[in-house]
Write a structure and sequence with these properties.
The chain is of the alpha+beta class. The protein is about 35% helix and about 15% strand.
Length: about 675
């Protein structure tokens, strides 16, 4: 008779007895059950016997039942579901699957420098034996009933292997095994863990040599296990966006697919961004950057500037590439989400023709398109290669007064008439500050969108859902940190606006001030006179009205009247408005198992884009034009230091370099 301990809800065990010739189990309460009994072990139900014979098992049905019940479960066993924390294997251990046992034994084999082979593997048994025939190392495991769980029944750890069979390569070091080993180091997408790091870690941990190709496959398998495949990510996208809207009411999302149910466009704007937009300056910077995943694509970004001159994210989109249709679709969603404001909206971008076309078609008279002066300057430098041309153009573009604009434009014409003609081919209202039909504030470039792209550099390598989740985490952190920073400010203006005024205070106090009326003053600076009108918030230097921050002349006039300075600043720069900007909260979506997804969302079919995946390494960095003053960081392949290459390295000379190259000691 074989005793069986059954753990009940009250943690009381009842002893059952089974004997040959009996196909039933009699419990202590006298009730009878058939062979479909469940043995409850640590709240896990294990079907011990189903009453049916296994395939190719010729033993009597009764013997199967008796043998199943003869497992020693006298004490509750903890079921091992992962190899983390499993340093060794002991008899009696219960593993969730056969695959997990093999994975665990492979790790042990690599650490102890031996190899094994599978002696028997079927639905009931799993036997492993050392590769060397005369070695006694052996492991046997048996399934628990009809579950996929296996219990270690025999384990002989003693080895009698010859040192001749120990090799630096290992047949158990497969890509699936290595992927489990490196998985913990790939959980954080912001951590750089490359192929060479994998090869080095496997060598240090197990002493196993590994090819670059196998390390690459291991990394791909590990990332697919953690984040899912690119195809699965697109299928999950409708459910993820629905969960995002459930957790963040007011969030706007949109997916568009083609007639074959393939992904085409996606748009998302968080409710916190939508409510905070009305406290930002009427200025939007848009840009597009390439994605680095399997199916590539383009990430569209729309940002604004908060009162502290920080990046305020508005909306994000994903499309195929930067073309007329994609930008028109993104601009349409942007207009639907954020609507129109009382002020004329200024949209800043590079000189991409598709952006200009989309603004004219979608936003029409409600917005004005200004080009990025940095990109314009780089075009001038690349086209004409004239020293000083870029700097003269920048001074021309940043001039507040038309007189200064004409002065720098004349200088540019003296340098090169062709450059002057090329610059004037573009409407000056789109790039020259003094001709803007609306306020552009201090946003001469699309730098904030470029900065956002740089902040999302790692996210752009991920699958679409993982990318959106990492983006959500970053925005959540920004909102929390900036809310905390705004609450710590003790004065009326934001830290940036307050610091900007502080820098010009001393200069303002040195100016001569003449009172014309209670609100009009004549300010003299370096023998030049400027008229300040505090009522209309203007100054003849034009800086006051363009930026909605008092210039040095206005501060001199305000100080003459002994008035506080913050009432003369635009409302965007008040700390109270800054607090309202980040008042919204971005909530996490939670675990996928907890999502409440309606049937119509679950039934949405979304396939990956119709893009032919090319072979080879994917592009990680953007192509830099020759006009950019960029110096590549050279890294030595031997000493790993920056600033030189291995050809001129003297820190770690090549051994036996020959007569043409002296060693470091001989030098």
């Amino acid at each position: 008779m074989c005793p069986v301990i059954v753990e009940t809800d009250a943690n009381e065990a009842s002893v059952a007895a089974s004997s040959q010739g009996s196909s039933r189990i009699t419990e202590s309460n006298g009730e009878k059950e058939d062979a479909n009994r469940l043995c409850i072990n640590k709240n896990k139900e294990i079907p011990i016997f189903s009453g049916q014979k296994r395939k190719n098992d010729k033993r009597p049905l009764l013997l199967n039942a008796i043998e199943f019940f003869c497992f020693d479960l006298s004490s509750p066993q903890q079921i091992i579901r992962a190899i983390d924390g499993v340093d060794d294997v002991e008899v009696g251990m219960v593993f969730e699957s056969k695959k997990l046992i093999k994975l665990c034994m492979a790790m042990i084999a690599m650490e102890e420098s031996f190899q094994f082979k599978t002696q028997r593997s079927d639905g009931m048994n799993f036997w492993l034996k050392c590769d060397q025939e005369d070695c006694t190392w052996l492991m046997k495991a048996r399934s628990l009933g009809e579950t996929k769980m296996f219990k270690i029944t025999k384990y002989d750890k003693v080895h009698k292997c010859s040192v001749d069979i120990v090799k630096s390569d290992h047949k158990q070091a497969t890509s699936s095994v290595i992927s489990e080993f490196i998985k913990p180091k790939l959980l954080d997408p912001k951590v750089q863990y490359g192929i060479n790091n994998i090869i080095q870690d496997v060598k240090q941990k197990f002493g196993v040599n590994m090819s670059y190709e196998k390390a690459w496959r291991s990394r791909v398998e590990a990332l697919d296990d953690i984040r899912g495949s690119s195809e699965d990510s697109f299928r999950l996208l409708p459910r993820y966006l629905h969960a995002l809207k459930n957790q963040n009411p007011g969030t706007i999302t949109r997916i568009e697919k083609d007639e074959h149910d393939r992904f085409k466009y996606m748009f998302v704007a968080y409710s916190a961004s939508i409510t905070g937009w009305k406290y930002c300056r009427p200025l939007i910077v848009v840009d597009g950057t390439f994605l680095k995943g399997k199916y590539k694509g383009t990430l569209f970004v729309a940002c604004a500037k908060d009162g502290n001159n920080g990046i305020f994210p508005l909306a994000f989109g994903v499309g195929d590439w930067e073309n007329n249709l994609s930008w028109e679709w993104f601009m349409s969603r942007l207009k639907e989400t954020f609507g129109n404001r009382n002020e004329v909206l200024c949209i800043v971008s590079d000189r991409h023709q598709s952006i200009e076309r989309a603004i004219k078609l979608v936003l029409k008279e409600t917005a004005f398109h200004g080009v990025c002066t940095f990109h314009f300057k780089q075009n001038i430098k690349a086209r004409f290669k004239k020293a000083g041309a870029g700097e003269l153009f920048e001074s021309t573009a940043r001039a507040y007064r038309k007189e200064d604009f004409d002065y720098f434009m004349a200088k540019l014409g003296e340098l090169s008439p062709k450059i002057r003609e090329y610059v004037l081919e573009e409407d000056p209202r789109r790039w020259a500050r003094c001709f803007y039909p609306c306020r552009r504030y201090n946003a001469q470039t699309s730098n904030i969108a470029e900065s956002m792209n740089s902040a999302l550099k790692k996210a752009r390598e991920l699958h679409i859902v993982s990318m959106l989740e990492l983006l959500r985490e970053k925005l959540q952190t920004w909102f929390v940190e900036r809310t905390k920073a705004a609450n710590e400010v003790m004065h009326d203006l934001t830290p940036w606006a307050n610091e900007k005024l502080q820098k010009i205070l001393q200069k303002a106090f040195q100016m001569k001030v003449e009172t014309l009326t209670l609100r009009r003053f004549n300010i003299t600076e370096n023998q030049r006179e400027f008229i300040v009108d505090l009522e209309n918030r203007t100054c003849t230097c034009r800086r006051f009205e363009h930026e909605e921050l008092p210039c040095a002349h206005a501060i001199a006039a305000i100080d003459k009247r002994k008035l506080p300075k913050y009432p003369f600043c635009g409302r965007w720069y008040l700390n109270s408005e800054y607090k309202e900007t980040y008042k919204g909260v971005i909530h996490p979506v939670g675990n996928e198992d907890d999502w409440d997804i309606p049937k119509e969302i679950r039934e949405i079919i979304l396939k990956h884009p119709n893009y032919k995946v090319r072979k080879g390494r994917r592009q990680k960095e953007r192509y830099r034009p020759s006009s950019e003053n960029y110096v590549a960081k050279r890294k030595c392949g031997r000493c790993k230091q920056l600033g030189h290459t291995r050809k001129v390295c003297i820190k770690t000379p090549i051994a036996n370099a020959g007569s043409k190259r002296k060693s470091f000691e001989d030098a």
